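Give me the fold.
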Amino acid sequence: MDFFLGKLSFLEIQNTTTIVCKVLETFLVTRTAVCVSCCLAQSFSHFFLGVTEFLIFSVMSFDYYIAVHKQLYNITIMTKILCFFLCLGAWLLSFVLIISEMSLLLVQCLLCSKNNIDHFYCDAGLGLS
């Protein structure tokens, strides 16, 4: 469980850092528009880290299930190698899911006529349609 909590805290630090850096840049430069490619990069990092977080929560619930229902076999089932591959699988699955969604969003954005989005942080549905 400590292994998964460490990975979860790393995800939270990355997600918070991404948002705070963008907000600070906006206040220092006093820019209120975001280019479409910057918006796609922000959306990718935001949703990639979010989906990875949910998948890590799922892996943690599986670990908890094994710890409660298979108490004597917990050490033999949840080895360090299995924990590593479960985390790696969570990262890879979230990457595949978000890349497929972002490719659809990219095709939609290429058909748009706007090159800038009038917000300092890009989130789902802010001027992308």
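Residues 125-129 have pLDDT under 50 and may be disordered.
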